[in-house]
Amino acid sequence: MESVPNAGYHIPVLLNEVLEALAIKEDGIYVDCTFGGGGHSSHILKALGPKGRLLVFDQDADAARNVPEDARVTFVPHNFRHLKRFLQLHGVPQVDGILADLGVSSHQFDEGSRGFSTRFEGALDMRMDQRSGKTAADVLQTYSESALHKLLEQYGEVTNARTLARTIVEVRKTVKFDTTLAFRNAVSSVVKGNPNKYFAQVFQALRIEVNDELGALKELLEQVPAVLKDGGRAAIITFHSLEDRLVKVFFRNGTFEAEEDHPFESRVRKSPLKLVNKKPIEAGQEELKRNPRSRSAKLRVAEKI
Ligand SMILES: C[S@@+](CC[C@H](N)C(=O)[O-])C[C@H]1O[C@@H](n2cnc3c(N)ncnc32)[C@H](O)[C@@H]1O
């Protein structure tokens, strides 16, 4: 395996596939929207010459510690949904490549106090950006039963989402879900199947909601055509079927609007992007053995035309 700095923080998935997909130009300008431990970024930097440039985003303050001292790197400690705005701020109207490796890092999971993991006792927080926004506890305490039902079903594929939503609304009248353990204990009577697997799905649903992960991805995708130079490439790694569908639809059509919204335009409207691979790229046997997290990773690549 290639060497990766900060491997204890996070092991990058589909590393070689990403590097190949981006087809890095020595003097190019690239954006890593999800810097994390900088695993992908460190290899992009190796492929860049002295005139190349890499802008890296991460909304989690912990990621800042991994940013290398390298004049070619600019760290943007913000949500990638503001991609275009921050690129303009740094004098970069367009780039040669965009990478996003979605979701949370192993570091975020392993930091019990952040509340992402079912394995540890911690505050029910789950915000990647701790400067603002609602926590997982806020979602559980304030959302309506139908909103909880919907998010548990759609984001977590929780089998008994309706029952769990009803239980949460009932139990919260007397119990405060301050910590991961308090929440697990309070709803333990409705757990179906293996509790660890069950809560992993519930926690995933809460995390996606807390961080508005699908909303941020949509906003990012909508900026891709304007931000990429002609011939530039976007590579996006997803870990959830809803995310993958957004990427697939946008990379194919260059829009989220259905054709029926514009029946007379649809024939002449041409996508500004073309898919580089018809099928998503997935981890090979060797990576699957080495890094179980790669199991659900799907990489899609598009080129600006
Ligand atoms: C899967 S990790 C990326 C790991 C990285 N590729 C590496 O090799 O170390 C995802 C990272 O992206 C950040 N992130 C997720 N969604 C984000 C968003 N909307 N805006 C900015 N950062 C985001 C997370 O905080 C996390 O550090």
Structural account:
This protein is α/β, with parallel strands linked by helices. The chain is built from 12 helices and 7 strands. It has 2 domains: 15-101 and 213-304, Vaccinia Virus protein VP39 (Rossmann fold); 112-211, Putative methyltransferase TM0872, insert domain (DNA polymerase, domain 1). Strands 3-2-1-4-5-7-6 form a 7-stranded mixed sheet, sandwiched between helices. Helix 6 (145-156) crosses helix 7, helix 6 crosses helix 9 and helix 10 runs parallel beside helix 11. It is globular, with a radius of gyration of 20 Å. The two termini are 34 Å apart. The chain binds S-adenosylmethionine (SAM). S-adenosylmethionine binds next to helix 2. Its EC number is 2.1.1.199. This is Ribosomal RNA small subunit methyltransferase H. Pfam families: Methyltransf_5 (PF01795).
- The SS-based structural class is alpha/beta
CATH homologous superfamily name of the largest domain? Vaccinia Virus protein VP39
**Estimated radius of gyration:** 20 Å
Text of the CATH class of the largest domain: Alpha Beta
Main beta sheet strand tally, sense and closure: 7 strands, mixed
CATH architecture group name of the largest domain: 3-Layer(aba) Sandwich
Following the backbone from N to C, one meets helices and strands in this order, namely HEHEEHEHHHHHHHEHEHE
Describe the global form. Answer: globular
Region (Disordered): 282-305
Main location: cytoplasm
InterPro entries: RsmH, SAM-dep_MeTrfase_MraW_recog, SAM-dependent_MTases_sf
Subcellular location: Cytoplasm
